[in-house]
Amino acid sequence: MTAVLVGIFGVAGGLLRFSIDTWFAHRSGTRRHWPWATLLVNVVGSLIIGLSVGVSGRLGLGEEWHAAMATGLASRLTTFSSWTTATIRLVSEVRYLAAALNVVVNLVAGLSAAALGAC
What we know:
Radius of gyration: 16 Å
Structural class: mainly alpha
Number of strands: 0
Strand content: under 5%
Shape: elongated
Number of helices: 5
Order of helices and strands: HHHHH
Helix content: over 70%
Largest sheet: none
């Protein structure tokens, strides 16, 4: 049952990620690139994993629900590789402050969201 839940939640996370990327891509126009979609999915994913830890324990949900939310939904939604690649892209554009902010904002917001969810 756990594998089925992880699969279903994983499909949902992947589709949600694709939708968010598409939405931001259609609105970026000719403006300079900033990885808003990646920031959003990483922070939301951190919140989801935090919630899965906090809620599953408090509500007595089984490990299968934690796995479905964390391994399925959040892992298909979030992206470390896009975050690092976006940072390298900003550096290659000689946008060092933007690259540093991308690192700091993702870390601080992600950690904060995870902590908030776990409370």
